[in-house]
Design goal:
By secondary structure, the chain is mainly α. The protein is built from 22 helices and 2 strands. The longest helix is centred in the first third of the chain and has 51 residues.
């Protein structure tokens, strides 16, 4: 069967599974809709958390970025992995003990202020929309190539599917759907990686293969790739070109941004106990590590095979996959010297080939000439990754509107049925806006997602950490810090990433302190912390009951009351 036939078959089966699970686990109450009834087991929640966490950026784009950026791309690997550990150890158990399942709800109650709650709602929606744009774009890229429809139509189809099971099932439906999606995406990620590792290095484990020798030679695969890069005028694959301060800033922004991501935090409220939250965090880390330790290997395999396939080869002799991706608008060949051969080189003035980085994982099995069913399986995995995270983000936006805005502020006496209706209306609005940003994203999938992490780092992380560990932090400090951080980060992103408010987008040489928009969340976070600490010390302390509540959050269950002051 052809790739397209296999794709229709496998994707059709997976979509049927998602919709079937949504019907089986549909939400009948607000507790089902927001936190899946609070009765999910740690292993199941760990698998769902991994699927929620490993978005289209992880599945589709991270290895693509590493493939093109080499050593520089490792910032995404380090930042996202370290960030999850930070979240699991530093924040999740305490937030779970506090008992508030949305970040705006925690901030509103901890800082005894609806103003703080409203600022948190705005931040949550802004972060989630920026993040979900990357997911919908990734879904559109998959549909564009494998179903041979326009990217925009692919985004629309993805919107329809995720809206159906997210609105019908809420968190309960999403949780069990994400278990299926994790199974599909990790299988789709590992199967081609193992096949290619065996073919190129003779090792069954890709994590070992990419640091080993090429089959039949004494040359390390990484050394060979370094040589290919130097021959073509690219920077050495294993050497970085980013400044140390930018590497540090991006890694830190991704780490602390992770700890402030609302769609991941809410997952720790779907388990019955605080101890289960810790266990599910451990399970999720194990499930996440399988993909994250494989991504560098896929990057090396894909990059090596791509260079061998296209460099200085006749355009007319390119395999079918090349023309398919070219037809989708994700590969562009411009024969500048008219010789009919593809000059793929580091010099932009003579380079004739432009490749969208987001295609590398998806095209990898085709480049390596794997069976058609494997190629289709990867497409299904990419869709599973994008849809699983998109669903979680839509639920955050939905909860921010229905629970944090309407129930907590505008209409406290709303019925449960009314709140559930508003939650579904909120999800509808969210998916429409998400679709628009998916069609008009501000960059590659992973780069777009990195901006969401920067926004989370600039706004939520200081407010959450100080809310847990600093009982002197008050509402004035928290609000001032969040506003300062999010405005600074959004302004920097608008000017240097989107080119807003200026005649022409400034070059990298104009970055403040040499820090890219993806890393500026670190600076904005520091500003947030300083502003919050200074303002809180210049204004009255929180009420005694709030300070005592903060003390109690940090006391392990059964350890007795906190010390009273």
């Amino acid at each position: 069967m052809s790739v397209q036939t296999w794709t229709y078959l496998i994707v059709g089966i997976t979509f049927a599974i998602y919709i079937g699970i949504a019907f089986w686990a549909r939400a009948s109450s607000t507790k089902d809709f927001y936190v899946a009834g609070g009765g999910v087991s740690p292993i199941v929640n760990g698998m769902a958390t991994a699927a929620d966490w490993m978005s289209a950026a992880s599945f589709i784009s991270m290895a693509g970025l590493i493939s093109f950026m080499g050593y520089d791309g490792s910032v995404y690997l380090m930042g996202w992995t370290g960030g999850y550990v930070l979240l699991a150890l530093l924040l999740a158990p305490y937030l779970r003990k506090f008992g508030k399942f949305t970040v705006p709800d925690f901030i509103g109650d901890r800082y005894y202020s609806n103003v703080a709650r409203t600022v948190a709602i705005i931040c949550a929606i802004l972060i989630s929309f920026t993040y979900v744009a990357g997911q919908m774009r990734g879904v559109g890229v998959v549909f564009a190539r494998f179903l041979e429809i326009p990217v925009n139509a692919g985004v629309g189809l993805g919107m329809a599917v995720v809206f159906f099971y997210a609105v019908l099932g809420g968190m309960k439906g999403i949780t069990y759907t994400q278990v299926a999606q994790y199974t599909i995406l990790i299988f789709a990620y590992m199967v081609p990686a193992i096949f290619i590792s065996l073919a190129m290095t003779g090792h069954v484990f890709p994590q070992i293969g990419f640091i080993g020798h090429e089959v039949g030679t004494d040359t390390f695969l990484l050394d060979k790739l370094d040589g290919l890069h130097k021959e073509l005028g690219f920077a050495a694959y294993t050497e970085g070109s980013k400044s140390m301060i930018d590497v540090f800033a991006i890694t830190m922004a991704l780490m602390v941004g992770t700890a402030g991501l609302p769609h991941v935090i809410v997952r720790f409220f779907t388990v019955p106990k605080v101890s289960d939250a810790r266990k599910s965090a451990g399970w999720a880390l194990l499930f996440i590590a399988i993909l994250y330790t494989t991504a560098p290997a896929i990057a090396v395999f894909a990059r090596t095979n791509l260079i061998h396939t296209v460099s200085n080869k006749e355009y007319t002799s390119m395999p079918e996959w090349f023309s398919k991706w070219e037809g989708a608008g994700l590969i562009t060949f411009n024969d500048k010297n008219g010789d009919g051969k593809i000059q793929y080189v580091g010099d932009k003035t003579t380079n004739e080939l432009d490749i969208d980085r987001d295609i590398m994982v998806l095209a990898n099995p085709e480049i390596a000439r794997l069976p058609n069913w494997v190629i289709a399986l990867v497409a299904a995995g990419g869709l599973a990754a994008g849809l699983s995270t998109a669903a979680g983000l839509l639920l955050v936006i939905s909860a921010a509107i229905s629970h944090d805005l309407i129930k907590k502020q505008l209409n406290p006496h709303i019925t449960e049925k009314g709140e559930l209706l508003w939650a579904r209306i909120g999800a509808l609005v969210a998916v429409l806006v998400a679709g628009y940003f998916g069609i008009h994203p501000p960059g590659f999938v992973a780069a777009t997602v990195a901006l969401a992490f920067g926004l989370a780092a600039a706004s939520f992380f200081p407010a959450i950490v100080l809310g847990i560990f600093d009982k002197r932090m008050n509402k004035e400090g928290a609000v001032a810090g969040m506003v300062a951080g999010i405005v600074l980060m959004f302004g920097y992103m608008a000017v240097f990433k989107l080119g807003w408010f200026v005649d022409k987008k400034p070059p990298a040489s104009a970055w403040w302190l040499g820090i890219s928009p993806e890393g500026f969340g670190t600076i904005a976070m520091v500003v947030n912390l300083i502003v919050a600490m200074v303002v809180s010390r210049l204004t009255p302390p929180p009420p005694e009951e709030v300070q005592e509540m903060v003390e109690m959050i940090r006391v392990p269950k059964g350890a007795g009351r906190a010390i009273e002051h």
